[in-house]
Design brief:
By secondary structure, this protein is an all-alpha fold. The chain has two domains: about 80 residues, Serine Threonine Protein Phosphatase 5, Tetratricopeptide repeat, CATH 1.25.40; about 110 residues, Serine Threonine Protein Phosphatase 5, Tetratricopeptide repeat (Alpha Horseshoe), CATH 1.25.40. The chain is built from eleven helices and no strands. It starts with a helix and ends in a 15-residue tail after the last helix.
Length: about 210
């Protein structure tokens, strides 16, 4: 990691060094340092969308939805319609409980890329929160069927929505950028909510 710091000092506009160092610090959960490095990167190379995307991800890790929206909006100003930036912006809206506007972002992504599983999963969560249970379940099922490794994440989303968790105090259990710990299925059964299909035997749960 030291060589990345040296690269930044020697070449302060080296976008790749900023990005790699920020991602490394984030992986180590050193979020304050990661945010500082990526902000410096954005200032040094403001036209590189990957830096804004990485900064937005760190902001979501810290539940800073406002900072995340600024970062993802910057990425979208550089590359309009960027799928990951739209998903990230939508997740930030989810953190704020603005499920209708979040759903609109995810739909925009899916209109151009129907196979974007993160967008479909998060859309499903939004629809359930908006009371459109059947459509929400259908989205989660489609995401699981297309990518079986999504089963655990989709299940946590369904349980969270079934419990009535929403708003900034209970962000989506699986977003474009991370997930919370696994939860028991018991509360879901007690509520009589629909369940997802069993995971494929070869893949198992997350």
């Amino acid at each position: 990691m030291a060589w990345l710091y040296r690269a930044i000092e020697r070449h302060p506009v080296c976008a790749r060094a900023f990005q790699e160092l920020g991602n490394l610090l984030r992986a180590m959960r050193r979020y304050v340092e990661a945010e500082s490095v990526l902000k410096r990167g954005v200032e040094a190379a403001p036209t590189v969308p990957e830096l804004s995307l990485a900064l937005g991800g760190v902001c979501l890790d810290c539940a800073d939805s406002g900072g995340a929206k600024i970062a993802f909006a910057r990425a979208l100003s550089i590359v309009p319609g960027h799928a990951d930036a739209l998903v990230g912006f939508g997740v930030a809206l989810q953190y704020e409980g603005d499920f209708a506007r979040a759903a609109e972002r995810f739909r925009r992504v899916l209109a151009h890329d129907p196979g974007h599983h993160r967008a479909r999963m998060n859309l499903g969560y939004c629809l359930i929160e908006l009371g459109q249970l059947d459509d929400g379940i259908a989205c989660l099922r489609a995401a699981v069927q297309a990518a079986p490794h999504n089963y655990g994440s989709a299940l946590r989303m369904l349980i969270s929505a079934g419990r009535g968790d929403s708003g900034s105090s209970a962000a989506p259990p699986q977003s474009a950028w991370g997930s919370t710990e696994s939860r028991s299925r018991a509360p879901l059964r007690a509520r009589g909510r629909p369940s997802l299909p069993a995971p494929p035997a070869a893949e198992g749960r997350e």
